[in-house]
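// run 5 | inverse folding | seed 20
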């Protein structure tokens, strides 16, 4: 019975700790979008052409630098836009579902613009 009572406490503590730096958050979003590059419209909206996805987006955004911080869009906005990308899995090596990526591309034009992509 004691184990059942400790279960929720263990789950709460598992998610505690300092927030990830802005650079890490930005790079996570880029990684997830690049894993979904084959989804319809992603390559075109991010204006990637034949360029290598992750290095190109890191260069455009500047989030490859350790001291990177969000300004526009804000960190909170990026976190909100990131939610569909982790809906299926938080595993950074697993591509998000194409419908979830489509939600981000459609609902977060400011994020697409930040990534150097094209506006609808």
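// decoded
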């Amino acid at each position: 019975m004691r184990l059942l009572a400790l279960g929720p406490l263990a789950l709460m503590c598992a998610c505690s700790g300092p927030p990830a730096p802005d650079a890490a958050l930005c790079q996570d979003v880029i990684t997830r979008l690049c894993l979904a590059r084959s989804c319809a419209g992603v390559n075109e909206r991010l204006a990637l052409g034949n360029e290598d996805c992750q290095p190109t987006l890191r260069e455009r955004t500047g989030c490859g630098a350790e001291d990177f911080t969000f300004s526009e869009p804000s960190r909170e906005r990026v976190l909100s836009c990131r939610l569909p990308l982790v809906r299926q899995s938080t595993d950074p090596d697993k591509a998000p579902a194409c419908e979830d990526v489509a939600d981000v591309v459609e609902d977060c034009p400011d994020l697409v613009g930040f990534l150097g992509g094209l506006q609808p």
